[in-house]
Amino acid sequence: MDVEGRASKGKPLTLNLEQGQEKGTQNDDYGLASAHTIDRDSWQQVGLMLVTSFNCGWILSFSNLCLWPLGWTWGIICLIVVGFYTAYANWLLAAFHFIDDRRFIRYRDLMGYVYGKSMYHLTWVFQFLTLLLGNMGFILLGGKALKSTLRKPAVKNMRKALYLQYTVGVPFYYGVTVIGYWAYGTMVSAYLPENLSGPKWINVLINAIVFLQSIVSQHMFVAPIHEALDTKFLEIDKPMHSGENLKRLFLLRAFFFTGNTFVAAAFPFMSDFVNFLGSFSLVPLTFMFPSMVFIKVKGRTARIEKKAWHWFNIVFSFLLTIATTISAVRLIVNNIQKYHFFADA
User: Fold this and answer.
1) For this UniProt entry, which segments traverse the membrane (predicted)?
2) From residue 11, how far is each of 7, 18, 104, 299 by CA, in Å?
3) Could you write out the DSSP letters of every residue in 275-343?
């Protein structure tokens, strides 16, 4: 399927889903210099990773975060709308693994190729800040990148993995949220296990599982950062687990998680910063940028209603970003007056 769009320099871009994955030309290696393994994993592996990493400790706070302020009607409506919207955005983004017969394994490379260096750097900053702050959230609980590992055909396999995530994973994701609010109503805690009563060993077991699962989710969500650091600092002409690379891997991971843990401990209201970064970076990354790529790549041949739909996504996401960012800043300002660094909150 070849579809032309407008490139930044006046040359047409071609979205080639099937041919780009079958030809195996040298152009498929565009931007693929990486210390990590590429084109090996099956869609089942990636799907399992998505299900297990997204059904993480965060969902234990969703009853309080989503349903308590909105109530049953608007809360359920928002959960369904956001669920469908994110599924659609990820489905759309999966189609852009290949443009002009070139494989893209990084979100920033894709945006840079379509829109130029400025969007490359903006996407880099947005994505890495979101992942860093999200990882700090996992640290607190314990205490949307392009999947480059997929084997070809990457588009079909990525979409199969998304099917698995949104069929097997979503019932757990939303089920815990709904059951938590059903059981405790407006008394539901920001961390659901705090509401549980019964034998002490049950609470210990639940918190231990959340802690261990958060470790898994941590490594999944910061995989793009690990890939960037490893490609920059490892000797990629040597095996990943050679003696020298193992030492560098240890130092990179130690510095990264030590810094993450220090900052998370320093700010007792770190969740507010997670909300802030999610507002002005995660919303555009998830909802706005995929539609921007569609307009650029398919702009000349797409039907008018499709272009109108994607322009609506872009404008609505932009307005949503402004509104949620203002709200997040207000929360930070309010909490700064209540807490001090390293407070036991």
Assistant:
1) 46-67, 74-99, 119-141, 162-184, 204-229, 250-270, 276-297, 309-333
2) 5, 21, 19, 13
3) HHHIIIIIHIIIIIHHHHHHHHHHTTTS-HHHHHHHHHHHHHHHHHHHHHHHHHHHHHHHHHTT--TT-
CA 293, CA 306: separation in Å to the nearest integer?
13
CA–CA dist 284, 342 (Å, integer): 32
| pLDDT tens figures, 290-314 | 899 999 888 888 889 999 999 999 9
Please give the residue range of the domain that contains residue 146: 2-336
Query: Does the residue 263 lie in any domain?
Result: yes
Tens digit of pLDDT for each residue in 128-176?
A: 777 666 655 554 444 433 444 455 666 777 788 888 878 888 888 888 8
Confirm whether 125 is domain-assigned.
yes
Within a domain: residue 345? Answer: no
Number of structural domains in the chain? 1
Domain membership flag for residue 108? yes
